[in-house]
Design goal:
Elements (H helix, E strand, L loop, with lengths): L7 H10 L2 H23 L9 H14 L3 H4 L7 H24 L4 H6 L6 H16 L4 H12 L4 H8 L3 H24 L17 H4 L23 H4 L23 E7 L8 H9 L9 E3 L2 E5 L5 H17 L4 E4 L11 H4 L12 E2 L5
Parallel strand pairs: 1-3, 1-4, 4-5
Antiparallel strand pairs: 2-3
Helix pairs in contact: 2-5, 3-5, 7-8, 9-10
Length: about 375
């Protein structure tokens, strides 16, 4: 174990010499940091053959076959960690393409099965499905189909036998219900997005030091199937332009941990169904409470954004700013509330926080 940080040159030398400790701590350590980020977005650990060791070994074999040269060609303005994680990203994306071809993309049912049957989140999910059945425009047969499939756990063949239909007809009927009613209803009312994005936002996949502004990465020359792994990207593409003067701290794009006095501020819905996006992160990591759609909860603060137009959000933002002023001992990290599934733009939401610029303990997203 290396307790003193090594330089990038020393790490690369250790890789080439086959130093097991350096490879274990730095190569696999860096890959693990990247895997954690990708797993949050793509649920890799729940997919066949997409576990950390399988993907990291695949990347290691490729690099060893090329004597680690792909890592030598990084710009001096870019850290080895950033360069390595960016390469690992392409291994992950290639693996996801293979998985999608082999098994199909993430489905509504995959999402359902990802919850432990006894968990609070699963119970909340069941309530949301019941809400769909109660309020969405469904006939009796459609309600029965959703109830049997999503709540009771029947398989398609069993439902077909019960309803006197063919399994194919059940499958087609459910697919139509899912696409036209269920998923849109979840997105509109519970701030949940069940679709897997093919290309991940660049800033969310690199280390914080890169996010703070390292220069663009020139493309090295390499043989093999991963030759496009390090395709050139401009500063604009990577959004890594470093400000010469940081006048005020801004909220990081990707937050995985908080200091004891920091509060994660996220967009919610009035019902407090924290099932997707930043709300889900707040629930799983920072103490957000299911059923509470407004205010402080654990190390998080909820601002409702799903109840109507921009002006319906303003009172909750004003209440938040007042609360922050009353608690100067806390630092509030405001995420891009309302700019995800709620459908608003930064230009629509950021003016609501005009007064927050004068509040020292409120940290806003870049360009707000």
């Amino acid at each position: 174990m290396y307790y003193q940080r090594l330089s990038d040159e020393e790490i690369l030398s250790g890789f080439r010499e086959g130093d097991a400790d350096i490879i274990r701590e730095y190569f696999y350590g860096y890959c693990q940091a990247g895997y954690y980020i990708f797993d949050q977005r793509y649920q890799l650990s729940e997919k066949e053959n997409l576990d950390f060791m399988s993907l990291a070994h695949q990347y290691a074999i490729y690099l060893m076959e090329h004597d680690w040269k792909p890592l030598e060609d990084h710009s001096p303005n870019v850290s080895l960690k950033t360069w390595l994680i960016n390469g690992f990203r392409y291994v992950v994306l290639d693996a996801l393409k293979w998985y999608k071809k082999e098994y199909g993309s993430i489905t509504f049912e995959d999402y359902l099965r990802s919850f432990d049957v006894t968990s609070d989140l699963r119970l909340q999910f069941n309530r949301m499905v019941e809400d769909v059945c109660d309020h969405a425009p469904l006939d009796r047969q459609e309600r029965l189909l959703i109830d049997m499939l999503l709540l009771r756990g029947f398989k398609g063949k069993e439902i077909a036998a019960q309803m006197g239909m063919t399994p194919s007809a059940i499958s087609q009927k459910y697919k139509k219900l899912k696409e036209e009613i269920i998923i849109p209803y979840f997105k509109k009312n519970f701030d949940m997005d069940l679709d897997m994005v093919e290309v991940m936002d660049e800033r969310a996949i690199l280390s914080r030091e890169a996010m703070m502004g390292e220069a663009s990465m020139p493309a090295p020359t390499m043989p093999g199937s991963l030759a496009d792994m390090y395709a050139p990207r401009s500063c604009e593409d990577m959004d890594f332009i470093k400000e010469e003067v940081m006048e005020k701290r801004t909220t990081p794009e990707f937050i995985t941990s908080l200091e004891p006095n920091e509060i994660f501020v996220f967009g919610s819905n009035l019902k407090g169904m924290h099932g997707g996006g930043a709300a889900y992160i707040a629930y799983r990591k920072f103490g957000a409470i299911m059923g509470q759609g407004v205010g402080l909860q654990g190390q998080s603060y909820a601002i409702p954004t799903m109840q109507g137009g921009v002006e319906t959000i303003r009172p909750y933002v004003d209440e938040f700013i007042w609360f922050a002023k009353e608690h100067p001992e806390l630092t509030f990290l405001v995420t891009r509330i309302g700019c995800g599934i709620a459908g608003f733009t930064d230009d629509e939401i950021s003016p609501l926080f005009e007064e927050a610029h004068e509040v020292e303990n409120i940290v806003l997203p870049p360009n707000w």
